[in-house]
Design goal:
Number of helices: 6
Shape: globular
Strand order of the largest sheet: 2-1-20-19-15-3-13-14-18
Low-confidence stretches: none
Number of strands: 20
Largest sheet: 9 strands, mixed
Mean pLDDT: 95
Helix content: 10-25%
Strand content: 25-35%
Length: about 350
């Protein structure tokens, strides 16, 4: 197995630059994960494939306004700070001060000691980011830093919502529409640097329709981090190190999984982050899921992985040579998935975060 095995050529015009006008009316490519057989449908047709007693599990995390555009204090140079996760070093966070791991640009100019100002609409400084330290020695060249955030406003949360921007993926070039369309309708806590995009296709009415038909709905939370935007650089994908992310699986979801499995139903993950959450809470010694609260996972799912919880998957079309391509292939086969992608390209499906959906059944 090589990283190149998960590469494909995608015409640039198929990268969706805006969401579907109606969430559940995007296209849906249905693939039988055992045979590779394909069907072209519309997303709301997902109801035709689910049965009473099945369980949908979605990641309810919400995207924080983590992209901060400001100016270097003293020189006025344009600067960007992209918040990734709360730092494990630094002082004790407070309402007006906190430490974060972040990506900064330009990395060569934003070294420890530098300060970036972020301005409110009235021209006053609403928040500052002091570059406190390198994140780690081996990530310094990639622009990763530990930053100390401070604000004169009543709280950092208020400051973040005053100056922060929703961090759309870099392949979405100039979207000026409603940023709420990059959030799922069921999102809750702001804890992610990117959206769990498979869930973008659900509407409240579609969820209610599924529940009325006897399909259960439960949630997990995985704080989506930097790896969403990263490709696998190594020729051998087993040499790649996936970033650690925090996830939570509540007891009610564990109970729903157990009831579903006992009754012969299927567990359908809404997105790869839900897959990683459910598989990460599996206790191999006891042979069952266990509830957990903000535990760390670096689970890296490659072809050959044995799934313990997830039976089927609703997902988007993923970036070539990404860990997500490998995870999807693990639930079927690389050959079936790559053939499905070629079909999607030929049929002009829309790809990536704002794009169409795929159901591996």
């Amino acid at each position: 197995m090589r990283t190149a095995d998960f590469d494909y050529e995608l015409p640039e015009e198929l990268i969706a630059q805006s969401p579907a006008s109606v969430r559940d009316e995007c296209r849906l490519l249905v693939m039988d994960r055992a045979t590779g057989a394909l069907e072209d449908r519309v997303f709301k047709d997902i109801c035709d494939y689910l049965q009473p007693g099945d369980l949908l599990v979605a990641n309810e995390t919400r995207v924080r306004p983590a992209r901060l555009l400001g100016f270097k204090h003293g020189t006025g140079g344009a600067s960007e700070v992209f918040l990734l996760r709360p730092a494990t070093v630094g002082g004790v966070p407070s309402n007006k001060e906190a430490w974060w791991e972040a990506l900064v640009r330009p990395g060569k100019r934003l070294k420890p000691g530098a300060v970036v100002d972020f301005f409110a609409a009235d021209g006053t400084v609403a928040m500052q980011a002091e570059i406190a330290d390198w994140a780690t020695a081996d990530t310094a060249s990639k622009g990763e830093r530990v930053v100390r955030l401070t604000t004169p406003l009543p709280s950092l949360d208020e400051a973040l919502h005053t100056v922060g921007n929703t961090p759309l993926p870099p392949y979405i070039k100039d979207y000026q529409g409603d940023k709420e369309l990059y959030q799922t309708v069921y999102s809750r806590n702001e804890s992610s640097a990117a959206a769990p995009t498979a869930g973008l296709h659900f509407t409240e009415a579609l969820i209610a329709r599924l529940q009325d038909a006897g399909v259960r709905w439960e949630t997990v939370e995985l704080e989506v981090g930097l790896d969403t935007f990263r490709l696998v650089d190594e020729d051998d994908p087993t040499q790649h190190t996936i970033h650690t992310e925090l996830f939570s699986v509540p007891q009610r979801t564990v109970d729903a999984v157990e009831r579903t499995k006992t009754a012969g139903g299927r567990v359908i993950a809404v997105g790869t982050t839900s897959v990683r959450s459910l598989e990460s809470c599996w206790d191999a010694e006891e042979g069952r899921c266990k509830a957990c609260d903000r535990q760390a996972t670096s689970l890296y799912i490659l072809p050959g992985y044995t799934f313990h919880v997830v039976d089927q998957l609703i997902t988007n079309f993923h970036v070539p040579k990404s860990t997500l391509m490998m995870l999807v292939s693990a639930l079927s086969t690389r050959e079936h998935v790559m053939a499905a992608y070629q079909h999607a390209i030929a049929q002009r499906y829309r790809f990536f975060s704002f794009g169409d959906a795929m159901f591996l059944r």
